[in-house]
Amino acid sequence: MSVCTGILVSKHCVLKRMEDSSKEEYRIQSFDMETQKLLKTALKDPGSVDLEKVSNVIVDQSLKDQVFSKEAGRICFTIVQAEAKQSSSSVFRRNLLNRLQQEFKAREDTRKKSTQEWVCLVSFICNIFDYLKVNNMPMMALVHPVYDCLFRLAQPDALKNEEEVDCLVLQLHRIGEQLEKMNLQRMDELFCLLRDGFLLQDGLSSLGRLLLLEILEFRAGSWTLSETAQKYYYSEVTD
Amino acid sequence: MSYTHKYRRDDDCKVDENRNKGSLRWSHCRKRGADGSVRGPQREAESTQSSSKREHRPQRPESFTTPESEGPVSRIRNWGDEVEADEMRTSVRRDMQRYRRRILAGEFVQRERKTSSGSSDSRDSRDSPAPGDIETDETVLMRRQKQINYGKNTLAYDRYIKEVPKHLRKPGIHPRTPNKFKKYSRRSWDQQIKLWKVKLHAWDPPAEEGSDLQAVYVLLWVCGGYYYGLHSN
């Protein structure tokens, strides 16, 4: 049952389906040649490179490059696995996570400085959460930090920003179901905020409203969109 | 060892709540606070650099001392350590399920007691424990697993497993990893680990030309020569 039946949303915008990410696996084209070489070596022979440097390079780029921030988890996971196989160690993962933790702690300042960097940070943390599984399970340590980021995006000042709403719904599409399994209560609280934001808040753009409505329906349908909803949100309106 | 402290931290986080409550209740009797410092007049506890999820808890000191720890243990968690502890915990749980299944499937066969040469364990390591009689305390299991990991993370172990596949191992001659799921006293377990690691040294790589180890041998030889030279006067 759709949560928001009866509320008219003027639909002069339509949602773009999310990019197919299976094409270029690691998306490292945005790095300079030397760094690309470093990363490729890290993937094959992690013991031969400075893994702390590699993790910093990856985090730095994720904060600048929107495309990379959404897919960096993949390359990180491969390096983690390669290192574990080669030397049963987890130097790269440890460095990556600790650096990420620093960035997370400074997130409010980052948001003030640059919305784009903030949005990249959230995408990156969520992508890491998605890909870096430990014994096939998501990392417990990241659950609350991820929620903290999403809650921040659900605040009134962030909902006014299309960029931030877009980031929020993207993450929920990708990892919402997993997050909910790890902590149902916080997901419920988050969606209360989103529902209230959608219904009550001034200053939302129509695209922002549409994005929120779609995610509300998405979760209400157990993290999947019905066919009718798909048609509503993702196909062109013929007037 | 500092490595041990990180794992204690995990457990202490749960136990700490009670400890702190206890200290509040009896604070007038205690000379020292939870962090080991001598109590003076009541002062604000330092704020921790904890993530927002801990904001609702009362402020606690940044470090604390327990009877088991070798000094103040930091409460500041970093994600790297947390994930490693997480990984070990899930590995240990998975191992336990696998072990339980193997016991129930009757994979371990009762054998006659043999006098095994190097083992401090008087019980034959092949006796199968009853399913209810295994070590389940996660703190213990994680500590034991860490000790096993130290032993397995060596060149000697790598060379050993390449040289001697499991089915060719002879009891008494070939070292066998202590079974972390069996009930042993702390001393017994620590001794088993020690002896196991000593046995593994038999597979240490030989000192290479120009290696550190060779340099040590040369140094000892030189010093030895100097010593004897001195005493021959």
From TrEMBL, chain A:
Localization: Cytoplasm; Nucleus
InterPro entries: ARM-type_fold, MIF4G-like_typ-3, mRNA_TranslReg/HistoneTransl
Domain MIF4G: 15-222
A Pfam family this chain is assigned to: MIF4G
Any Gene Ontology CC annotation: histone mRNA stem-loop binding complex
Record flagged with keyword Cytoplasm: yes
Gene Ontology BP annotations: regulation of translational initiation
UniProt main location, coarse: cytoplasm
SUPFAM superfamilies: ARM repeat
GO molecular function: identical protein binding; RNA binding; translation activator activity
Alphabetic keyword roster: Cytoplasm, Nucleus, Translation regulation
Membership in a protein family: Belongs to the MIF4GD family.
Stated role: Functions in replication-dependent translation of histone mRNAs which differ from other eukaryotic mRNAs in that they do not end with a poly-A tail but a stem-loop. May participate in circularizing those mRNAs specifically enhancing their translation.
Subunit record text: Interacts with EIF4G1, EIF4G2 and SLBP; probably tethered by SLBP to the 3'-end of mRNAs ending with the histone stem-loop, it also interacts with EIF4G1 which is bound to their 5'-end.
Protein name: MIF4G domain-containing protein
Species of provenance: Pygocentrus nattereri
Lineage: Eukaryota, Metazoa, Chordata, Craniata, Vertebrata
UniProtKB/TrEMBL annotation, chain B:
InterPro entries noted in UniProt: SLBP1/SLBP2 (IPR026502), SLBP_RNA_bind (IPR029344), SLBP_RNA_bind_sf (IPR038294)
Residue ranges of domain Histone RNA hairpin-binding protein RNA-binding in the record: 136-205
Keyword RNA-binding: yes
Biological processes per GO annotation: mRNA 3'-end processing by stem-loop binding and cleavage; mRNA transport
Annotated segments matching region Disordered: 1-81, 109-137
Compositional bias segments (type: Basic and acidic residues): 8-20, 109-127
GO molecular function, one term: histone pre-mRNA stem-loop binding
GO cellular component: cytoplasm; histone pre-mRNA 3'end processing complex
Alphabetically ordered keywords of this record: RNA-binding
Highest taxon in the source lineage: Eukaryota
Similarity remark: Belongs to the SLBP family.
Protein name: Histone RNA hairpin-binding protein RNA-binding domain-containing protein
Species name: Pygocentrus nattereri
Organism placement in taxonomy: Eukaryota, Metazoa, Chordata, Craniata, Vertebrata
Gene that encodes the chain: SLBP
